[in-house]
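[Meeting: bench + compute handoff]

Bench side (C.D.) handed over the final construct sequence. Compute side (W.E.) agreed to return the predicted structure before the next meeting so the bench team could plan truncations. Sequence as handed over:
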Amino acid sequence: MRTTQLALETALRALTALSGGRAADQKDLVTLAKLAGPKPDSMDWDEFLCCIIQSAIRKKRRLLVQNNDRTIYSSDPEHF
């Protein structure tokens, strides 16, 4: 779960930089390459970062369901 959280936080930070017209921190990009693999040539950075974020959220949801069978799939931020 710690790796998933790190990937989520790092991808969000990089996406925030890009959407603000700045370059993503090189250290964040290296971390993401270690956690998620290299960016496919066919993807832009924003698309790649969104895929990492979506994957991390799906993984967190699955873990929540596995750890507590009363937990339901929800878009409510309180469930993360």
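W.E. noted at the follow-up: The helical segments are 2-19, 26-36, 45-67. C.D. will use this when planning the next construct.
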